[in-house]
Amino acid sequence: DSLRQAFSGFAPAAVALYDEKDVERLLADPGVIRNRLKIRAIVANARAFLAAQAAYGSFSAYIWGFTGGVTLKNHWRDTAEVPARTEISDKMSRDLKKRGFKFTGSVVCYAFMQAVGMVNDHVAGCFLYGDDLAAAPPDGVLR
Prior knowledge:
The protein is mainly α. The chain is built from seven helices and three strands, in the order αααααβααββ. It has a three-stranded mixed beta sheet with strand order 2-1-3. The termini are far apart. 20% of the residues are buried.
């Protein structure tokens, strides 16, 4: 709630307009992480978000383009097999950085992909895994 209030309800169009006065205000707010680089990154990311949204019609269209618009379902038997990053998250990270996003390394991108359902990394025995495991290809990745 503190972050939502401090950052204009997370409205990218509002945050993109923040200037140094807003950065100073946020640095004094005990309800947020008071790190100048991170606060400036949030403003830069809001601007980059709006630019990607304008270029692709929606940020969703842009970001889901990295998986071809489908959830990638992996076939892991143990959580130790789940990677922290992949070639796709590497590509996403590079493209986000090229577009001006900050703090968007490959590990962060892969965690985002997991959180929003772009990739399903539930292990084979998990009730959230879903489909028949016999259909898994030898490389472990269902497409």
